[in-house]
Amino acid sequence: MSASSTFEKILYLDTSLSFAERAKDLIGRLTLEEKVGLMNHPALGVPRLNIPAYNYWNEALHGIARSGRATVFPQAIGMAATWDKELIFKVATAISDEGRAKYHAALRRNGYTDQYQGLTFWSPNVNIFRDPRWGRGQETWGEDPFLTGEMAAEYVKGLQGNHPKYLKAAACAKHYAVHSGPEKDRHKFNAIVTKRELYDTYLPAFKKLVTEAQVESVMGAYNRTLGEVCCASELLLDDILRGEWGFGGHVVSDCMALSDFHLHHRVTEDAADSAALALKFGCDLGCDHVFNEIPTAIERGDTTEELVDRALERTLGTRFKLGMFDPEKEVPFASISMDVVACDEHRQLAYRTATESVVLLKNKDNILPVKPSTKKIFVTGPTAASMEVLLGNYYGVNNQMVTLLEGLAGRIPEGMGMEYTSGAMLKHPREIKNSWAPQTAQSADFAIVCAGYSSFLEGEEGESLLSPQNGDRDSISLPASQVDYIKELSIHGVKIVLVLTGGSPIALGEVEDMVDAILFVWYPGMEGGRAVADVLFGDVSPAGKLPLTFPESLDQLPAFDDYSMKGRTYRYMLEEPLYPFGFGLSYTSFEYSDLHLDKTTLAPGESLNVSLTLTNSGASDSAEVAQYYLSDLHASTIVPLHHLIGFERIILKAGESCILKSTITPQMMSFFNDDGKLTLESGEFRLEVGGCSPGKRGQELGAPTSVTAVFNIL
Description:
Blueprint: H1 19-28, H2 32-37, E1 42-43, E2 54-55, H3 76-80, H4 85-110, H5 145-160, E3 172-176, E4 190-191, H6 195-202, H7 204-211, E5 217-220, E6 224-225, E7 228-229, H8 234-244, E8 250-253, H9 257-263, H10 271-280, H11 294-300, H12 305-321, H13 344-357, E9 359-363, E10 376-380, H14 388-391, H15 404-411, E11 417-421, H16 437-442, E12 446-452, H17 480-491, E13 496-501, H18 511-514, E14 517-522, H19 528-536, H20 569-572, E15 590-597, E16 601-602, E17 608-616, E18 622-632, E19 643-652, E20 657-664, H21 666-669, E21 671-672, E22 678-679, E23 683-690, H22 696-701, E24 707-713
Parallel strand pairs: 3-5, 4-6, 5-8, 10-11, 10-12, 12-13, 13-14, 16-24
Antiparallel strand pairs: 1-2, 6-7, 9-14, 15-17, 17-20, 18-19, 18-23, 21-22, 23-24
Helix pairs in contact: 1-12, 4-5, 4-13, 5-7, 9-10, 10-11, 13-19, 15-19
């Protein structure tokens, strides 16, 4: 059909009309069969209307994933450790640039786009990382609802762009809601939480993305929440998402989640019944085959074509916003060249992100950075030469990946000695009993032991080849093969710098005392090796902060399948952890001082202005993340012990000071009551500002002394 000859009549091609008007016109031209063909993630084409096939399933967790060459940024949990919102916006902008270029290249090559070649990206994952056993926690932004919302909102804004008419890409907030393992039970479990916990912990990040970042889509979770399947939940979808929050985008099911209705949750009789239930409560797109049964559901009288049209208005509305039915010359992003894909600028951005994500957990006697006087280093450990530890999961690939070993080899100055051997396996004990490694290590100033986890040991159901728990972990300790190797080196008197990879907390036990320094580097992406080497040698001072608590052991945690927040995360955990939320050391030192409140007694509804001084009191330039925590000391119900209300990443030269100013709003002073309502009460509050979450453990480990003040609401 020629757009030029029938332009006046074919309203869906009229770019002067609203997207909603155009979508309705297009839907009105479709048969029921054609409509149904558009409702699954491999949406069929409509040849008679020149509408190409389109696949909604695309991934961009930390770079364009599963679609060939791309810039591979650090895994999401590593990006969270940067606490750098401006950086995350830049990362997401680079990712959407690459996504646009790849989409148009595929469209021009094939006339359509296949799976992983589209613009509807099922990212970010804003589930709360409530339990370190969950293998997919690496995909999240950590355990704190506020940090998750702040960081993921920037990610959404960068993906979607700020054009007044078109979306650059469509982001997706997933998995809605109350979803974080166990993986083996995800198709059948029922998450039980109180209304207070739902609104206090599990919903804030989703709300932030919907109401402030204007995320275009939301993905329903596999599980049930409070008895309702998440992809057809009256509470989650009707009452909260579209009711309270006014969400106007589309809802997509997780993959095969609609089949779970009748196969595992047993809330429906068959696929047609499941399709009717999903449509009723506003699931618009199926990552499944279940919506193929819509005609049967209509014949039975269980659903209507009007509900089909409602769903299509939302999903086709997204495609219109992306410019998929408009001439390329009118879509501003269609001209983005393939030259941006994995370009030098994006590589440098991946490098910067990896350096900012590194968290220094220990540095005994300032063994780091590597001193110029060092004669020889010994590089060892099962992750040193591993490509897998750069990637995490949901990754793209690149032809210039830099492993930890390669990064160190490229950075070490000529004349400084360096040897390498793996020394130990990732999980399995080595067959050889006598290894040369300890003797080699003894001849070096110290050993850089690269250890930890990889995607073989933690990840999503079906992906982690060495996980007996479907990607989850039944232990959060280092595998015994690695512990034994570190112990062997320690017994021989070797000084050890431990470089840990992983996407979740690791309980170190006796290893913590055996080593002199510890860097946690997550899954650092394609430039991980270069970034880690530059931090080790002091070209960059580590400034990352933990976005989650590292418990001492599983003994400090409730049962994995218990979704109550009691005893979980820094907000509700009473015991002192191995490493606290927000913790991270530096090669310099920082001092917080002169905390000033503009008033100490507030009327209800008043805001509080705060100022303080931050000083780099050490000898090297570095960034610091100032963190603001508030405690409600006399609340009438259960509230967090303390909760993050703000943070700021500041770069200071050695000896430099700056004054930080912020405002504490009534909303920050409020808490969620037992009915899930935000409530502001009179009483006493404590504000604490520092480089770590409150608690003695952070101070014992070397975090700067925080500053505190108390105020009252009348």
